[in-house]
Amino acid sequence: MYRKNAWKKYEDKAPVMDFAEGYKKFITYGKTERLVVKESVELLEKAGFLDGSKAKSIKPGDKLYFLNKNKNVAAFIIGKKPLSEGLRILGAHIDSPRLDLKENPVYENNGFALGDTHYYGGVKKYQWVTIPLALHGVVIKKDGKTVEVNIGEDPADPVVGITDLLIHLSADQLQKTAAKVIEGEDLDISLGSIPVKDEEKDAVKKNVLALLKDKYDIEEEDLISAEIEVTPAGPARDYGLDRSMVAGYGHDDRVCAYTSLKAILDVEPSDYTSVCILVDKEEIGSVGATGAQSLFFENIVAKLAKLAGESDALYAAREIFEHSKMLSSDVSAGFDPLYAGVNDPKNAAYFGNGLVFNKYTGRGGKSGSNDANPEYYAWVRRSMDEAGVHWQNAELGKVDQGGGGTIAYILGNYNMNVIDAGIAVHNMHAPMEIVSKVDVYEAYLGYKAFLTAKE
């Protein structure tokens, strides 16, 4: 099924279109990592998965999930074979490029209340101006109470945004490079313009803070211990007159997170233990307690090893990883005919051709890449073909054009077999990204095939 248009095999396109409806709902709600985790846990519990932190023992067929700081979730279906014979792992990240409110964000300037931001991940800054934006996140008060913030998604809500200079006065601005036409410190959101009556100083700021106090019972100082993300407002939508694509925010990498999650939700217990792990912070290097470089995953595998009777659980976890197979489920750059020059067309990912395998990513001379073993790649190819999954291979653009990375190399450090497997995306890292519905569905089928494939 290598490099064939997947649409042609579906006389009845209903399964593809129906699957896309579920995905659109998932990313419309899941605008942040915390929301994705919350939504994932609801789906897992509905499917019979139990909180693994409370487990006292494990046996084949058990379905468990583990949380980490409300920004990671890992789901397991215990297999018939011992853990020591390895896991089948689907791993994706759930963070996406965005803007974050700074710790002291609200200020007033010439009659406007503004919110100071710091962009997160690799963005083209000019793409974030003049579009409707929403506020999502949590405020943690000193007494430990968590206040959830969601402004801009309900049609009755106001939205916020970032202004741009009118074309009539842009002579100097238009001489700047794209990287400089909008500066990072100028990505401040407009919050309001009505002043508090009889106030001389910061009257508009005080009005905005009063609105937040009234709606959420938070003070300005509470924003220091907050995590408020600024994201595009509005739902994911069908894209194209034929409705063949989905336009939305956060396809990178929530499209792989959803398809991986759905795969483990929909498979039966198999010979090998099935795993889906969703991680944070890939867009800034997979660092920190909730990134793929965290010991969270290693620790929970060690816990499972201990529950399985291993006396040296940490050593057992390393042995388990050595015998494991993983798909690092992350998106790939889709071939765009408007920008064909950045690709090697023989080694590019095309919309409609199904799941994309990247033997390596990285930059230039494969710097920062996992570069999968060919023996493992051959096993993956066979598994996909035997399941009738449409798939293709790709590199991330021409050799010296740029590049990017995934979490594959991090898990590869455990000496496990890992290869990147994801979905072609247009407009990657933009506020509105595009994917093909049939590619999303083929990825789901491919991930299920991987979890259940025989040796």
List the helices and strands and how they pair.
Layout: H1 14-29, H2 33-46, E1 50-51, E2 63-68, E3 72-77, E4 87-93, E5 98-109, E6 112-120, E7 133-140, E8 146-151, E9 189-192, H3 203-216, E10 226-232, E11 237-239, E12 245-248, H4 251-266, E13 273-279, H5 296-307, H6 313-322, E14 325-328, E15 332-333, E16 355-358, E17 362-363, H7 374-386, E18 391-393, E19 403-404, H8 408-412, E20 417-422, E21 424-425, E22 433-436, H9 437-452
Parallel strand pairs: 1-2, 4-13, 4-14, 14-20, 15-21, 16-18
Antiparallel strand pairs: 2-3, 3-13, 5-6, 5-10, 6-9, 7-8, 7-10, 11-12, 12-22, 16-20, 17-19
Instruction: Output mean pLDDT.
Output: 95
The CATH superfamily title of the largest domain = Zn peptidases
Question: Structural class, judged by helices and strands?
Answer: alpha/beta
Strand content: 15-25%
Give me the Rg, rounded: 23 Å
* Unreliably modeled segments: none
- The total of helices stands at 9
How far apart are the termini? 20 Å
The counted number of beta strands is: 22
Largest sheet: 9 strands, mixed
- For the record, the CATH architecture of the largest domain stands as 3-Layer(aba) Sandwich
Q: Categorize the overall geometry.
A: globular
- How many structural domains in the coordinates? 2
Helix content: 25-40%
Largest sheet, order of strands side by side? 1-2-3-13-4-14-20-16-18
By CATH, the topology of the largest domain is Aminopeptidase
Can you identify the CATH class of the largest domain?
Alpha Beta
